[in-house]
Amino acid sequence: MNYLQKNGVICSFLLTACMISNAQTVLRFGHTDQAAGARDAAANFFARAVEQLTQGRYTVEVLCCGKAGSDPKSVERLIGGDLDFTVSATGSYAPLVPTLNLSMLPFLVDNYAQGWKLYDESPWMQAQFAKAPAKGFRFLATWEAGFRSMTTKEPLNSPEDAKGKKLRTFPNEMMRWTLEAMGFNIQIMPLPEVYLAIQQGAVSGQENPVDTIYSNKFYEVAPHVTLTNHVYSPLPLAMSEKTWQKMSTEDQRAVTEAAIRTANFSRIHVVGNDDIQLKQMEKLGARIQYSPNTAAFRSASEMVYMKAREKYGADVDQLLEQARIVRKKYR
Which stretch of DSSP H or E encloses residue 26? Predict the structure, then answer.
């Protein structure tokens, strides 16, 4: 082998080694929000942060609009390791960590500041999140969706107006108990099917945070938007434990930092958009009920706490006490 041939082999080897060292691992992030929604905006912010903080060792492919499956299916796929991230309400994770159902109790907090403190600092909440790795996934940070409200075809001012109405929600025990206590008949269905179901009369309406109502245009088919704020519904970001364990400690720290940075972005984004989106919906024909009879909805929901105590025991009062402290401190 002559000099040029030898150097050609060496150069080829070095080039191959360099390409391998710079190879990117693609991680898949599935969620059910629309491309125009706050959840999708946060997912893409997170993707950019991960790539930046890992110096390009990892990139994140965002699959919006249910392309990776429904919320429950996405959680299932996390455990199997064929999906790396998802973000959803706590109720979607509750089949695996049942006590997280209690975070969906009605009227736990009254404003965003209270909700953030409860999710970030409550010992009870952190203890529930810590159960996840043993189930095949882990929580990295809590992103924002907002307070859940109603969109219905007919006016909804109090529980009297809910009686006999069929309302869509997602598969969660606490949510079902709450809505039934208010008088609704419940219909479970995936989010992408809801618009057509309302349009065709299969259900009278649905409940979700303002951003989800806006991005899915539910106000077009159910124009009465009633700000019940019956459940605070943030979005814990979850990661497959299988994916986590494959990462170096350095990359685990980087992904966690990206998740926390995105939580801050998500909270600012949603809080800043609530009023803008409500005003825009009004311009497009929605009728916003800003001051429904919240006391009546709260009163109707009281039986949910009793029912929860029967099933979950002391956990209910532990969470309620921590929520009470937060409400008192951050009025």
Answer: strand 25-30
